[in-house]
Design brief:
Shape: elongated
Radius of gyration: 26 Å
Number of helices: 9
Distance between the termini: 59 Å
Order of helices and strands: EEEEEEEEHHHHEHHEEEEHEEEEHH
Oligomer: single chain
CATH class of the largest domain: Alpha Beta
Strand content: 25-35%
Structural class: alpha+beta
CATH topology of the largest domain: Chloramphenicol Acetyltransferase
C-alpha cells in the first residue's frame, strides 16, 4: 500500500519549507525512521525521517524547491507498486469531464538546485522563463539574462530578495517593535569577578560566558515573575518554567536558541547545552524546538565586540538582557582609583506590565549577582 507523507507544520506558524537535499531517490529502499530529506524552515535545517518502511515511489520536489505544508513530500510503498499524485488524478478527471472548468496543473519548472539558488539570490522568478538547456531546462545564463532584462536600478545598485530566515527575523522584529512599548535601562558592572570565574571554568572545556549570566538571572526571574511572563490581551501568563533563550550570531542572521528548564540544570550541563546549541545554530542543524518558546532572552553582544545597545524584546516575552564588551576603565574601590574591566548592561522590558521602579529593582539585582558571581558558584 502506498503511504503518502505530507509536509507537517514543523515550526511555529510554518506555511512552507524548502528542500535542501534529498538523501534518497525514487526506487530506493528505506527503513522506518531513516532520514530522507533535509528541509529548511525560517530558522533551521530539519531532517525529515520516514515513518514507513518500503520503496520510495515518489519525491515531492527537487533540491531547492519550496513545499507547502500539507503537500505530498514523499510516498513510500511496495516494490513495483504504482502511485499517482492526487493533483494529477484530479487534473486528468477534469480534462475528461466537459462540464468541469478546473484549470490544468502548472508545469514544473526544470532547473538545477544551483540555478534555483542563483534565481533566489537575484530575485528572479523562474516560472515565466523559457529554458535554453537540454529538454527546456533553465540555465545559469537564462537566469542572469532575465535578471538583466528586469533590472531597473542601474549598474551601481543591486536588488536581492531577503533570505527566508532574514524575512522571518524582519517580520518578528517589526511586530515586536510596533506592538510592545519598550523601555531600556542601562547599568555598568565591574566584570572582574565574572571574567575571572569564566577564565577558570573554561580551562576544562567549552564554557560560554552566557552560562554565568544565566546563573545571575535565574533567581531574579523567580523573585520578579513579571520578567518571565507573556501578555495575552488583557491577561498575563506567569510562566512557572524557565526556558532561557540565548542569542547566537550566524552567517544568516541572529538566532535565539532555547534551553528548557534551565533552572533544573547544573552549571556544567547548562554550559554544555548552550555550547552545543550555538554550534548547531551556526551549522544550521537546529530542530524547531531548539529555537522556540523562550521565556527570557540573554544576548551577549560583547562576544562580537559590541558595547551598549537597546535590544528588541522577542514577541511572547516581556524582557531581554544584553551584556556588552568589558573595557578597562578607572573605578573607585575603597576610596582608591583602580583600573577594572567594566561592561555595559542593557535591560529592555515591556512597559505595559513592568513599571520603571520594578525594572530598576531587577537591574540592580543583576548588577549585584554578576559582580558577586564567585560567591554564588
Amino acid at each position: 500500500m502506498a503511504n503518502e507523507f505530507r509536509l507537517p507544520d514543523i515550526g511555529e506558524g510554518l506555511t512552507d519549507a524548502e528542500i535542501v537535499e534529498w538523501h534518497v531517490k525514487a526506487g530506493d529502499e528505506v527503513t522506518t525512521d531513516q532520514g530522507l530529506v533535509d528541509m529548511e524552515t525560517a530558522k533551521a535545517v530539519v531532517e525529515i525521517t520516514s515513518p514507513f518502511a518500503g520503496v520510495v515511489l515518489h519525491l515531492g520536489g527537487d533540491d531547492g524547491d519550496t513545499v507547502n505544508v500539507g503537500d505530498v513530500l514523499f510516498v513510500v510503498g511496495e516494490a513495483g507498486e504504482e502511485w499517482e499524485e492526487v493533483a494529477s488524478r484530479e487534473s486528468r478527471v477534469a480534462s475528461e469531464d466537459p462540464a468541469s472548468q478546473r484549470p490544468a496543473s502548472p508545469v514544473a519548472v526544470k532547473a538545477t538546485p544551483m540555478v534555483r539558488k542563483l534565481a533566489r539570490d537575484q530575485g528572479v522568478d523562474l516560472a515565466p522563463i523559457t529554458g535554453s538547456g537540454p529538454g527546456g531546462s533553465i540555465t545559469r545564463d537564462d537566469v542572469l539574462g532575465a535578471g538583466s532584462a528586469s533590472a531597473t536600478l542601474g549598474d551601481r545598485e543591486e536588488r536581492k530578495q531577503l533570505s527566508r530566515m532574514r524575512r522571518t527575523i524582519s517580520a518578528n522584529m517589526t511586530r515586536s517593535w510596533q506592538e510592545i512599548p519598550h523601555v531600556t535601562v542601562q547599568a555598568d558592572i565591574d566584570a572582574t569577578r565574572l571574567l575571572a570565574a569564566h577564565r577558570s571554568l573554561k580551562e576544562t572545556g567549552p564554557f560560554p560566558l552566557e552560562t554565568l549570566i544565566a546563573t545571575a538571572v535565574l533567581p531574579l526571574l523567580v523573585e520578579f515573575p513579571a520578567f518571565n511572563a507573556a501578555l495575552d490581551g488583557d491577561d498575563v501568563i506567569y510562566k512557572q518554567h524557565y526556558d532561557l533563550g540565548f542569542a547566537v550570531h550566524t552567517d544568516e542572521g541572529l538566532l535565539v536558541v532555547v534551553t528548557r528548564d534551565s533552572d533544573q540544570k547544573s552549571t556544567a550541563d547548562l554550559a554544555a547545552e548552550i555550547a552545543g546549541l550555538a554550534t548547531r545554530a551556526k551549522e544550521r542543524h537546529l530542530q524547531p524546538d531548539d529555537v522556540a518558546g523562550q521565556t527570557f532572552t540573554i544576548s551577549n553582544i560583547g562576544a562580537i565586540g559590541a558595547g551598549g545597545g537597546t535590544p528588541i524584546i522577542p514577541w511572547g516575552t516581556t524582557a531581554i538582557l544584553s551584556l556588552g564588551r568589558a573595557k578597562d576603565t578607572p573605578v573607585v574601590r575603597n576610596g582608591d582609583i583602580v583600573v577594572a574591566p567594566v561592561a555595559p548592561m542593557n535591560l529592555s522590558y515591556d512597559h505595559r506590565l513592568i513599571d520603571g521602579a520594578l525594572g530598576q529593582e531587577f537591574l540592580a539585582g543583576l548588577v549585584a549577582n554578576l559582580e558577586g558571581i564567585n560567591e554564588r558558584l
